[in-house]
Amino acid sequence: MGTRRDRLRAATVKEISETARRILVEEGPEAVTLRAIAREMGMTAPALYRYFDSHGELLRHLVGDLFTELTGELRAALKRVPHDDMSGKFMVASRQFRSWSLAHPREYALLFGAPVRGVGEQEQVDFAEECARQFGWTFMELFLQLWKKKPFPVPPDDEIDPVLLPQLRAYRDTVLGVELPLGVIQQFLKCWIRLQGGVSLEVFGHLEFALTDAEPMFELMLAEIAPQIGLTYTRR
């Protein structure tokens, strides 16, 4: 439980994060300043430095909180799918990612837009990056489960582009730390690039030149990806 002082500090940090998010949603990322947050909370800007050393550290904390929320929603959705239904898990995770992103466009922009500036505090970098890794592992774990249960066709190393090969190896060995063929890593990245890229285009309004409702196009993408990794596409 911690001491009373620890609980009060945790409650204040939570209020600061919630206030920062409210300003982000209502006014945009440029408005999320220590002065604006302090004004909303009835504090002085210098008082906030007892909790965050800089504006960049505060934003990194908010990034971590948002990744944690998104990861929680994905995992909650996955629990509603039978354990052995890999196709269902892939569909529900992809759709939930899109739904959260469209419902929270400014939060999405903070997570997947331009990197947050002012980063230099190692502790907060670790917090934000760890939360981001937990989010990424939600999808990577699906690939691991799928590969163990029913391996899908992947190219051997000698058929992978020689420019990609060392990058895939470095990503697998130093970032993921898993024992998987490089072809699986390549397929994972191909799927993620299509999924996250498609969602980004929709969230940022870059499909409005042609589509007023991009959901059918998103579903078409899922239908094309599914058989590439041995899954069966099912409609919503």
Automatic annotation (TrEMBL):
Q: Which SUPFAM superfamilies match?
A: Homeodomain-like, Tetracyclin repressor-like, C-terminal domain
Task: Spell out the protein name for this chain.
Answer: TetR/AcrR family transcriptional regulator
HTH tetR-type domain location is 10-70
Any matching Pfam family? TetR_C_33
What residue stretch is flagged as signal peptide?
A: none
Recite the UniProt keywords alphabetically: DNA-binding, Transcription, Transcription regulation
Please tell me whether the keyword DNA-binding is annotated for this protein.
Answer: yes
Tell me the DNA-binding residue spans.
33-52
